[in-house]
UniProtKB/TrEMBL annotation:
Taxonomic path: Bacteria, Bacillati, Actinomycetota, Actinomycetes, Micrococcales
Biased composition (Low complexity): 328-345
Source domain of life: Bacteria
Disordered as annotated region, ranges: 325-345
Pathway(s) of this molecule: Lipid metabolism; sphingolipid metabolism; Sphingolipid metabolism
Organism from which the protein derives: Arthrobacter burdickii
Membrane topology of this protein: Multi-pass membrane protein
Compartments it resides in: Membrane
Keywords: Glycosyltransferase, Membrane, Transferase, Transmembrane, Transmembrane helix
Main subcellular location of this protein, as a coarse class: membrane
Designated name of the protein: Glycosyltransferase family 2 protein
Amino acid sequence: MQYAAEYILPLKWNGAGPVTELAHYLRDLVRWIDVTVVDGSDEPSFDRHSRAFPPEVRHLRPDPDLVRRGGNGKVHGVLTGLAAARHELVVIADDDVRYRRPELQWVLELLEESDLVRPQNYFARLPWHARWDTGRTLLNRAFSSDYPGTLGVRRSTLLAAGGYCADALFENLELIRTVKAAGGVEARADDLFVARLPCSSRHFARQRVRQAYDSFAQPGRLAVELGLLPAVLLARPAPRHLALAGLAVVAVAEVGRRRRGGRHVFGPTAALWAPAWLLERAVCSWLAVASRARGGVRYAGGRMLLAAHPERYLRAQLEQRGVGGVVPAGATSPPAAPTRGPSGK
C-alpha cells in the first residue's frame, strides 16, 4: 500500500556518486510513497541517474527561475519539488537519509495533526568522523532538539508562506522558522529515529567551518561557542581541571543519549566523543567569524552571508503579506510529543 504523500529528494552529484546504493533505496521507497528527485547535477550525471533510478521515480531539473536567483541549491530543489508535489503531506530528505517504512509512516501520522515534523537522525555506520559528529547530536538533544537532514511538512503551509529563503545557509532552520512564523505547528519527534549514511572523512573536514557558521542564526549559542576558547586561554586551567570539564561535557552528552529512547540508536561510548566535538567548535567558531568578515562562508564557489533569518523577522514579513495563523487539518491544539511508533513499540 502506498501512502498519499510525496517524498522530495534534492540531489546534486557531479561525477562519481553512490548512485547504485541510492537507486536500491529508491526501489523500496517507491513501493510506499510517490518519489520526486530534483537533480541539479551536470548533464552526464543527470543522465546516469535517470538510467539508474526506478522508472516510478519522477526525476526533475530544478526550476531555472529559482536557480538564476542564486543562493542555496538544496532550497531550489525543495521548492521545485514542492511546487510539483502531488500530495499535501510531504517528506523532505537529504540524499544520505534512509527511511524504513515504520519511520515513514510515523512521520506521516504526525503530519495529520501538525504542519512540520522534526525527526531525529542517527548514523547507520560509525567511522570515526560519524562518532565525532554524534557528540554534537547528543549535546543538542541534551538541551533541546537536534537538526535532522529530513523534515515532514504540509505543502499548503509552506506554499502559503511563499516558500522559504534560498539565501540561507542553514536551510532546514530557515524552513522550520518559516513554517512556525506562518502559524504552523511543529511536532518535535525526538524519539523518531531515522538513519543516515556518513559522508566521507574528506567531506566531513570541509564542513567544519561551514557548520560552525550556522550558529550565527542562534546568537546565544554562538556567544557560548565563541567564549570557550578565550575562557580556556585566559584561565589556563590545570590538566585535572580540564579533565573534570571534559567529564562534565560527557555527562551532559550522556543525558542527550538517554533522552527519549536515544540508547536504542546511540551506543554506550557515544558521549565520550562530545568533548572532541566541542573543542573543534571552539576553534571553528572563530574561523566562522573570520569568514563572515570576508563576506560569508564559502558555498558552491561563492560565499553566503546569511545563516538563517530570526523567526520574528519572518513573522513580520509574513504579517505584512497577510500570511499567518495557519491551523493544521484536523488539529484543535498542538500535538502531544510522540512517545511511541505506529506499531506501539
